[in-house]
Each structure stands twice: as structure tokens, then as C-alpha cells.
């Protein structure tokens, strides 16, 4: 049974059989839905909460605007 995973960067659900898995040298596993997410996390070293199109950012924003 394929597990339901969500993208490590943008937080979108990944359909089984799609997306890509990236394993860091220290053994940390990331699941990415697209190359866009992989590039942002691995290549550009961006943090999900700093990038506007991610789930993490929207959660942050919701918390910030609540107060
Ligand atoms: Zn993604």
C-alpha cells in the first residue's frame, strides 16, 4: 500500500506514483511534488515559510493575521 505523502516544501498532497523523493546526505528524506519544489528546497535553499506559494507560508500568515 502506498502511503499518502505530502510535499515537503509546498505541502500539497502527492498522488502515489508521482513526485520525487530526495534523500539528503545525512539521511533525511524529502518528498517533492515537482522539480520546482525540489529546486527551491535543495538548490536554492529556501525555507517554506519564506516562500509565498507554500502551505507553510499560508499557515504562518493565518496565525499572524489572527492577532
Ligand atoms: Zn511541492
Automatic annotation (TrEMBL):
UniProt-recorded Gene Ontology molecular function terms: rRNA binding; structural constituent of ribosome; zinc ion binding
Cleavable signal peptide: none
SMART domains for this protein: TRASH (SM00746)
Needed co-factor(s): Zn(2+)
GO cellular component terms, semicolon-separated: ribonucleoprotein complex; ribosome
Zinc finger (C4-type): 7-37
Alphabetized HAMAP family for the sequence: Ribosomal_eL24 (MF_00773)
Family: Belongs to the eukaryotic ribosomal protein eL24 family.
UniProt name for this protein: Large ribosomal subunit protein eL24
Source organism (scientific name): Candidatus Methanofastidiosum methylothiophilum
Lineage, broadest ranks: Archaea, Methanobacteriati, Methanobacteriota, Stenosarchaea group, Candidatus Methanofastidiosia
